[in-house]
User: Which sequence fits this backbone?
């Protein structure tokens, strides 16, 4: 419908321009026709401006939506990365402690701690942050 109105407006402007040549110069009818033509042309200019404004706003909205989607994706990636780092900061020390405890308990089988390394580390084996 909007396209149809634009076409009708364009046809009316063309018709008015053609009719101007048939009217006498300086007559009241010609000046009225010129005023009507100016009004129609202003209407067409306003319609074009409205289309451009709508297009710009639509594009800006689409850009904002895409930006928010990109930000959300980055936040999700960042969240998973942080979760992975936190998990590694818990799991890696536990693996380290388990390895040294296993070696230390081998020394315990004999009833003595012969390794000075294990003796010094044994007091520090606490899976907590300092």
Assistant:
């Amino acid at each position: 419908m909007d396209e149809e109105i634009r076409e009708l407006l364009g046809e009316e402007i063309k018709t008015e321009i053609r009719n101007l040549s048939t009217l006498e110069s300086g007559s009241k009818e010609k000046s009225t026709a010129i005023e009507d033509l100016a009004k129609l042309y202003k209407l067409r200019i306003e319609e074009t401006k409205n289309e451009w404004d709508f297009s710009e706003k639509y594009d800006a909205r689409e850009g904002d939506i895409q930006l928010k989607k990109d930000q959300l994706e980055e936040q999700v990636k960042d969240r998973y990365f942080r979760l992975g780092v936190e998990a590694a900061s818990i799991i890696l020390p536990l693996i380290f402690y388990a390895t040294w405890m296993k070696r230390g308990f081998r020394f315990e089988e004999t009833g003595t701690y012969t390794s000075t390394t294990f003796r010094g580390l044994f007091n520090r084996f606490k899976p907590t942050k300092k």
DSSP finds three helices and no strands in the chain. The radius of gyration is 41 Å.
